[in-house]
Design brief:
116 residues; mainly alpha; elongated
């Protein structure tokens, strides 16, 4: 069980890496949302929800932190959804939408690592 949990944590980190990595590449190039960002978010979300249940651990989970991370993830999802749709329709993406997704993703990773 413990090994399986570690594998799910690894998948969660891959999702984070894909979402944030794709965003960093875009930040230094054409500032648009890409399919990779959405895929990374979905992977991080599915693995994160699986990790939010207390299995394969001998300590208490911090549910306040997990709740905050979930709310932030839902905001990231909404921004990616709205931005991708507008991008498709108008061909442009508002800078506020683009930067918010990167900053909120970074904030969620920071919360995960710093808030114990
Ligand atoms: C874009 C959104 C997210 C990002 C960038 C993110 C990032 C991270 C990172 C970097 C870690 C590793 C931290 C460490 O091991 O010290 C982590 C762990 C974790 N995340 Fe997330 N996360 C996100 C969303 C979520 C969501 C929505 C949930 C569940 C509600 C969640 C639940 C967890 C749990 C339970 C762990 C600890 C795993 C363990 O050690 O057993 N994450 N997250």
């Amino acid at each position: 069980m413990e090994i399986l949990r570690h594998v799910v944590v690894l998948v969660h980190l891959v999702g984070f890496a894909v979402l944030f990595g794709a965003w960093v590449v875009a930040a230094f190039g054409e500032r648009r949302f890409t399919r990779l960002m959405t895929w990374g978010m979905v992977i991080a979300a599915v693995a994160g929800l699986a990790l939010a249940a207390p299995w394969g651990i001998s300590y208490e989970l911090n549910y306040v932190k997990l709740g905050v991370k979930l709310v932030i993830l839902l905001v990231i999802g909404a921004l990616l959804g709205i931005g991708t749709a507008r991008q498709r329709k108008t061909g442009t993406l508002a800078p506020a939408l683009f930067w918010s997704v990167g900053i909120l993703t970074f904030v969620n990773a920071a919360l995960a690592v710093i808030w114990r």
